[in-house]
Amino acid sequence: MNIKTILVVMGEPNSTFSEILFKFFNSKNFKKMKKKIVLIGCKNLLLMQMNKLKYKLSLNEISNIKFSKNKKINIINIDYKFKKTFDTISNKSNEYIKNCFDAGFAIIKKNKSIGFINGPISKKHFLKKKFPGVTEYIAYKTNSKNEVMLIYNEKMSVSPITTHIPVKSINKYITKKKIINNIFKINNFFKIKFKKKPRFAVLGLNPHCETTDKISEEKTKILPAINYLKNKKLNIDGPHSADTFFSDKNIKKYDVVIGMYHDQVLIPSKTLFGFNAINLTIGLPFLRITPDHGPNYSMLGENRSDPSSMFYAIKFFNKFS
Description:
Strand content: 15-25%
CATH architecture of the largest domain: 3-Layer(aba) Sandwich
Number of domains: 2
CATH topology of the largest domain: Isopropylmalate Dehydrogenase
Low-confidence stretches: none
Shape: globular
Helix content: 25-40%
Structural class: alpha/beta
Number of helices: 13
Distance between the termini: 6 Å
């Protein structure tokens, strides 16, 4: 799909996302872009945050994406009543965030050649435990099922079978079917986007892939899924012990590492690649990317946040869409 416009839903207004955007818009990368960028958020708030952080950028307010222009910071304004330029994260921003997302979904529903980036949100305040994470929220709002989280880096990507669920519940959500479906989707994504057959490594759930219990997830769920996928001619092996897997040798050998839970693969990925990675959601009716950082409230308004993941997200859109 040839994506011509990238929608950027601002998300939590009291986060470092606006700062990261300003750093991108102030760079040579933005001036070289051929795709249009349209922000969805509060224009007045962005202008005040821009002034606070000492950036001098112009916003081109539009009412419809058909009026957007190349190399301009286009914005569709969403009203938001705020008192402080940067404030404490609370429920007060919930309606505004929802309105930003809804405006983005409405646009994408009518326009297929659009990419989607969203800023971070607070799971505690915005999601209110109704969804494990924003990935699941977006899937629900777009009537998508069986979405897959892929943390992409060109050297090695990782994907957890379970995402934002309590550790004590992980084994209940791991099934042979889910492992197979997730890996099939990632395999097809790589074939379409990158024109390659990815090399998969699958991690076990238990330490050293062993357990003293009568039930072993490696034997009952993980290995049967791997064998099924091997029979379908996928390039896959495992289960591997997670504690020794992330070595230089394996980073060079595999394209995608499938973990059984969130931190099992995100901790090593973030340690290895820092902010040079992006969160892709596979299984939506559009390409959605989230820069790999949260609201980062501790550095709010200090102009010290690392914008690398935003640069990486735009680079991905430019190169592969």
